């Protein structure tokens, strides 16, 4: 029998400790801390994420039941519910936000070669937001409406590997489109959004930055056709109905976006629905534009996946700092598992890997042996209804 390190310790070996400690030092996270360090806090919260714990009490009970193994897990400080609760409350959440961003920098090159199945060399991003409802009486700082609170997770997803490259956590009142004001745009990249982000002035700023966007037009978008592009028989047979150069005619829209736009009308045979897309790219084939928008659904699947399989639907603290700490550590765990998946050259899905890990953290099986040749099929992820992606993108 293998008598080496615990599975949990093997996972945490993939954490870049120098970077973690640098993030801690940036915000003086261990200032006047005697026994329960920021690393202890991170490891305890990561354990809670990986084993689907329901509360701080649940987490502490499970860890204390394996007290003789805590040292081998890397946890050096004493475990107590109040200690962990206070750490989440007072230690700067930006420690874990910065660390998650550093993990993302490691993960993205590992997935740079992922094939989207499109004849396109540009980096492609999907932008969307998801609201996490909270109780108004318990989370008054996150006021959403007069009767409830909420936090909103604004996410930019790199579609090569589905790695989140930008995350902004706001209260529920922040409109989705406002995140475009703080987004660092990458020249030459495609930004795919739903029509909730249809603000022509902000879309023009994307164009001015040398980037491209693909977005659904609203029914009341007013425009004038200037030119109709020829459609190949192949594209026409695959659903492309028209490919036009247009200019906006409504005064405020024309002022916000004074240049030409490209309008593509596409009929999806799976759902028998017709869609109108707007883009500032005039060179990519029309069918590719439609396929790009189809890939936008990956960000919706990301939100669904992370809510179901990481602990952010129920929070271990009620302060803004505790909530943001928990979300950022959840993101760190997601990205860490994505890194390990590539480093160990695993074919299994992240969901499958996490399911196995949730039951195996205290075992001493070699990690590559534990996670090799796992069953890839998952009833939720292979649901044929998810193939009808355009039918699922009508939320805005």
Structural class determined from secondary elements: alpha+beta
Task: State mean pLDDT (0 to 100 scale).
Answer: 87
**Major sheet summary line:** 10 strands, mixed
What distance lies between the first and last C-alpha atoms, to the nearest angstrom? 54 Å
Strand percentage: 15-25%
Helix/strand order, N-terminal first: HHHHHHHEEEEEHEEHEHEEHHHHH
Radius of gyration, CA atoms, in whole angstroms: 23 Å
Per the principal axes of the C-alpha atoms, what is the gross shape? elongated
Task: Count the DSSP helices.
Answer: 15
Q: Tell how many strands the DSSP assignment holds.
A: 10
Percent in helix = 25-40%
List segments where confidence is low: pLDDT < 50 over at least 5 consecutive residues.
376-396
Description:
With about 400 residues, the protein is of the alpha+beta class. Among the domains are: about 5-95 and about 315-370, no CATH class; about 195-295, no CATH class. Helix content is about 40%, strand content about 20%. The chain is built from 15 helices and ten strands. It has helices spanning about 5-10, 15-25, 40-50, 55-65, 70-75, 80-90, 95-110, 200-210, 235, 250-255, 285-295, 295-310, 320-345, 350-360, 365-370; strands at about 125-135, 145, 150-160, 165-170, 190-195, 210-215, 225-230, 240-250, 260-270, 275-280. Strands 1, 2, 3, 4, 5, 6, 7, 8, 9 and 10 form a ten-stranded mixed beta sheet that branches. Helix 3 packs across helix 4 (about 55-65), helix 3 crosses helix 13 (about 320-345) and helix 6 crosses helix 13 (about 320-345). The longest helix has 24 residues, at about 320-345. The radius of gyration is 23 Å and the shape is elongated. The relative contact order is 0.14. Mean pLDDT is about 85; it is low at about 375-395.
């Amino acid at each position: 029998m293998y008598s080496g390190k615990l599975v949990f310790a093997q996972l945490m070996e993939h954490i870049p400790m120098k970077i973690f400690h640098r993030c801690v030092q940036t915000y003086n996270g261990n200032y006047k801390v005697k026994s329960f360090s920021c690393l202890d806090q991170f490891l305890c919260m990561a354990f809670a994420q990986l084993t689907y714990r329901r509360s701080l009490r649940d987490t502490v009970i499970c860890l204390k039941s394996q007290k003789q193994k805590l040292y081998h897990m890397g946890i050096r400080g004493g475990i107590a519910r109040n200690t962990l609760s206070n750490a989440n409350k007072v230690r700067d959440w930006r420690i874990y936000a910065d660390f998650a961003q550093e993990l993302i920098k490691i993960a993205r090159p590992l997935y740079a070669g992922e094939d989207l199945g499109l004849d396109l060399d540009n980096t492609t991003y999907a932008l969307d937001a998801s609201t996490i409802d909270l109780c108004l009486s318990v989370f008054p700082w996150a006021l959403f409406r007069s009767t409830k609170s909420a936090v909103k997770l604004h996410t930019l997803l790199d579609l090569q590997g589905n790695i989140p490259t930008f995350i902004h956590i706001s209260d529920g009142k922040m409109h989705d489109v406002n995140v475009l004001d703080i987004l660092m745009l990458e020249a030459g990249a495609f930004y795919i959004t739903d029509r909730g982000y249809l603000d022509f002035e902000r879309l023009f700023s994307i164009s001015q930055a040398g980037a491209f966007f693909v977005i659904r037009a609203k029914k009341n978008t007013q425009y004038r056709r200037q030119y109709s592009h020829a459609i190949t028989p192949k594209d026409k047979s695959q659903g492309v109905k028209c490919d036009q150069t247009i200019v906006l005619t409504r005064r405020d829209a024309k002022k916000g976006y004074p240049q030409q736009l490209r309008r593509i009308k596409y009929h999806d045979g799976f759902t028998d629905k017709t869609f109108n897309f707007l883009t500032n790219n005039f060179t990519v084939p029309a069918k590719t534009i439609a396929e790009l928008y189809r890939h936008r659904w990956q960000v919706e699947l990301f939100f669904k996946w992370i809510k179901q399989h990481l602990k952010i639907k129920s929070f271990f603290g009620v302060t803004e700092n505790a909530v943001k700490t928990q979300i950022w550590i959840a993101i760190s765990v997601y990205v860490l598992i994505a890194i390990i998946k590539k480093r160990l050259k695993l074919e299994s899905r992240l969901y499958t890997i996490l399911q196995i890990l949730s039951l195996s953290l205290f075992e001493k099986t070699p990690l590559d042996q534990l996670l090799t040749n796992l069953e890839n099929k998952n009833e939720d992820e292979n649901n044929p209804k998810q193939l009808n992606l355009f039918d699922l993108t009508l939320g805005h």
